[in-house]
Amino acid sequence: MKILCLTARLPYPPDRGDRLRAFNFIRQLSREHELSLVSFITSEAEREQAAVLRQYCQEVRVVQLTSLQSAANVALNLWRPEPLQVLYYRSAAMQRLVNEVLASGPFNVAYVHLFRMAPYLWQGASRTSRRLAA
What we know:
Mean pLDDT: 92
Radius of gyration: 14 Å
Number of helices: 6
Order of helices and strands: EHEHEHHHEH
Strand order of the largest sheet: 3-2-1-4
Oligomer: single chain
Strand content: 15-25%
Low-confidence stretches: none
């Protein structure tokens, strides 16, 4: 099965709660499935850590989003009805990347780690002719 994985934080190193959980899901799923990971990073140093995930994922793509950018996202979009966590991770660059990955080929299913990443899939799936089918 071909699986698209979306995470708000790069799941490596698996050193705390959300990263540890996402890393273990990816590690286990990779045993029988083809994975494509799309994730945020907070610094260029994290980009190097993404290489480790290539042993589990066919494709690892990242978008940098600093805490300053995230704080600005919340401040500028506070009037929106979305939860603060969704506003914190709001990124046009991430949406473009998810759209590009979705358009690159059909996925059977998506693993969306934490609801803050779900809007990227909803908007991306509605903009592409390809659909996720379980």
